[in-house]
Amino acid sequence: MNIVYLNGVFQPASEARISVFDRGFLFGDSVYEVIPFYQGVGFRLEAHLERLRHSLRAVRIHTELDWHDILQELVAQNGGGNMSVYLQVSRGDVGERSHDFDEAMAPTVFACCQPIANIYTAGTAKVQPIKAIVTADVRGHRCDIKSTCLQSNIMVLQQARSQGASEALQVRDGLLTEGTSSNLYVVRQNVIYTPKLSSEILGGITRQLVLELADEHGIQYQETDIDYEQLLDADEVWISSSTRAVVPVVEVDGEIIGDGEPGPLWAKMFQLFIDFHHTLMTGRGDG
Ligand code: PMP
Fold it and tell me: Is 146 a catalytic residue?
């Protein structure tokens, strides 16, 4: 049975109900996190919770629960194993539709999970390289907030799918920002380049790990501007996200990247992720 968490209660998904006046539903007035759990262990759980707190602070929703306990219990009640956990906090509802809100109102807290494959035990050979397109970034200017207002992201993702691609890389003012649900990297001459953190992109938890692992293993990187020509001219292009780790992009707008195969630096980085995962699972990592 699919068990979800809603406002303090673990219950079957089919029984969970929220108000039609919930501001998450009416206005997209809510924030969220997606966190992979492998065999009950959250992948960089603390970093995800820190980002959740950042999002909550930014939109002035005031709540702090024992997130660890809630999420561990949710995963356990759904049979443990490998799960992608979704956690959403909306501003809640006061029984009417109104743009105004009272900061003291009680938020709606919802969490659910679904089984995922363990990409790390599957290994490098099982990772499918992807194709991407480039689209205009028409989102607002607070992309550092993990908001559920995802309409423009899903519209451009749909456009990518209709063109046989699986991610849309977005451009604002001539510079690449990120994918619809991923951060972006290009590699040239063994150096990783990725857009610097700003309110124009999400501070990806996986992005942080890529840079940490690069530091630890003497791989050079720069957080810098990337334009369209640099993207198409790259030796390698990658995207990253929590449930996918690092994924090679071998075609952009119909142009082949490098030799059209996952590159050697990607393979090295993915192996570092596998090693990190192994350390985490054997209890020697900090998650
Ligand atoms: N950018 C956007 C817009 C995203 O939705 C995501 C997925 N959460 C990411 C980047 C990657 O973030 P993370 O590594 O924390 O999953």
Answer: yes
